[in-house]
Amino acid sequence: MAERAFDVLVIGAGAAGLAAAEALTRAGRSVLVLEARARIGGRVWTRSMPGLDVPIELGAEFIHGAAETTFALLERAGMRWIAGARTQRYAARGRLREVDSFALAQKAMKDRSPLRERDLSFEDYLARRRLDARTRVFARMMVEGFDAADPRRASARAIAEEWGDGDALLGAQPRLRAGYGPALEWLARRAVARGARLRMDCVVREIRWRPGRVEVTGKGFQFKGKKAIVTLPLGVLQSQAVQFNPKLGKENCLKLLASGPVIKAALRFPSVFWDRSVAFFHSPGAAFPTFWTPLPARVPLLIAWAGGPKADRLSGFPMKKVTAAMLASLGTTFGKVEEPDQIYVHDWKSDPFARGAYSYVLVNGGDARRRLAAPLKDTLYFAGEATNLEGESGTVSGALQTGQRAAREALR
Ligand SMILES: Cc1cc2nc3c(=O)[nH]c(=O)nc-3n(C[C@H](O)[C@H](O)[C@H](O)COP(=O)(O)OP(=O)(O)OC[C@H]3O[C@@H](n4cnc5c(N)ncnc54)[C@H](O)[C@@H]3O)c2cc1C
């Protein structure tokens, strides 16, 4: 049992928690970060695969949108990024044809008039638009894949806002040369060097709080702080795996957000069998509708991606079944191909410390992120991608930004 009360307890060592810890220690505060996993990073999980000279990202991979906070971090850490490629093909009638799914998705959302009076689900919005079949198919694929959302539940207004301005969707999507992992490790090192304590394998079960006092407990530990920054993922908050005492009073806004499922896999092949100039391959009807390559790196690696309802259908099943669906999708997209000789897979919905890949807004949930982000009694502060109010939810940059915001709020 620790007697000492830290200035701030930070729950979770993902992008938001580490950004918060780094900012708080910079301001001279005593900080304890409690993390359930044996690793930092949360939904950033950079691995390597023998024989491949590129980072393997099982979580976040691209730099989406303007991402000012990410670029500022890379600058400070002296880390490099590489431009991405956007060439796409989709499988139709046994051939791979050109497509720009980003542009088609944007075209689908162009007319906002059906949303002027009220919010609709993305599916209802599509039903009110006159669009050709291909635009519909790819717009739906983008909602499911890019936003990990269920088109029957997702707010069309929120999607229009996200896709509308072009940057998030149409801009190039660079990657970090060494992956996101080292960037977050850099933040952790900075925080620890300034005195932050970082405790791994600490699954928080209960947070008791009153103004100016927080007590966090789990199996075999109890820590005290004057304040806490909670960066638990949306799905974890919704599951009530962590009990707050007294309750947060945020139950209503939690019902207006959802945590989208994603299954992401990395497949290494004996050789590159695809067109080396193409970045993304789609087969919208397949269980895994999207594969991508690490272009500009030309190595025998494909990333397989299922998001939204397609991931939901496979989530929780034994890996054998998931892998079989992935290999069948590979066949649908590329025809007969060699078997991969190594596969890493992660099912983010079944991960108890993520319970989904990233958040999206449900119909009429326009204000939910703001309500979730609101601090309580100058004592509890909320960070994490789902609380981003700058249009960067669902991203690393957005998560970093909320960690810095919560640190500023706690320092006030
Ligand atoms: C498959 C996938 C692909 C993605 N692709 C991209 C991309 O290309 N670009 C991009 O910008 N973003 C991407 N994202 C989103 C990005 O990864 C997240 O928005 C961001 O990493 C979230 O950071 P966070 O700090 O909010 O949450 P997290 O990283 O989830 O951090 C929360 C931490 O809390 C810990 N925790 C959970 N429960 C407990 C508990 N009971 N006690 C203690 N600790 C607990 C977790 O282990 C975790 O470390 C992707 C995400 C996924 C899953």
Write the topology of this structure.
Elements: E1 5-11, H1 15-26, E2 31-34, E3 46-47, E4 56-57, H2 68-77, E5 81-82, E6 88-92, E7 95-98, H3 101-108, H4 122-127, H5 133-145, H6 156-164, H7 167-170, E8 175-176, H8 180-193, E9 197-199, E10 204-210, E11 213-218, E12 221-230, H9 234-239, E13 243-245, H10 251-255, E14 257-260, E15 262-268, E16 280-282, E17 290-292, E18 301-307, H11 309-314, H12 319-334, E19 342-347, E20 358-361, H13 368-373, E21 380-382, H14 396-411
Parallel strand pairs: 1-2, 1-12, 2-9, 6-16, 10-13, 12-21
Antiparallel strand pairs: 3-4, 5-8, 6-7, 10-11, 11-12, 14-20, 15-18, 15-19, 16-17, 17-18
In summary, what is this structure?
With about 400 residues, the chain is of the alpha/beta class. It is about 30% helix and about 25% strand.
Description of the molecule:
The protein has helices at residues 15-26, 68-77, 101-108, 122-127, 133-145, 156-164, 167-170, 180-193, 234-239, 251-255, 309-314, 319-334, 368-373, 396-411, and strands spanning 5-11, 31-34, 46-47, 56-57, 81-82, 88-92, 95-98, 175-176, 197-199, 204-210, 213-218, 221-230, 243-245, 257-260, 262-268, 280-282, 290-292, 301-307, 342-347, 358-361, 380-382. It is globular. By secondary structure, it is an alpha/beta fold. The longest helix has 16 residues, at 319-334. 49% of the residues are buried. The strands form five sheets. Strands 1, 2, 9, 10, 11, 12, 13 and 21 form an eight-stranded mixed beta sheet that branches. Helix 1 packs parallel to helix 14 (396-411). The chain has 14 helices and 21 strands. It folds into three domains: 5-43 and 180-258 and 360-411, FAD/NAD(P)-binding domain (3-Layer(bba) Sandwich); 46-64 and 172-178 and 260-347, Polyamine Oxidase, Chain A, domain 2 (Alpha-Beta Complex); 101-170, no CATH class. It binds flavin-adenine dinucleotide (FAD).
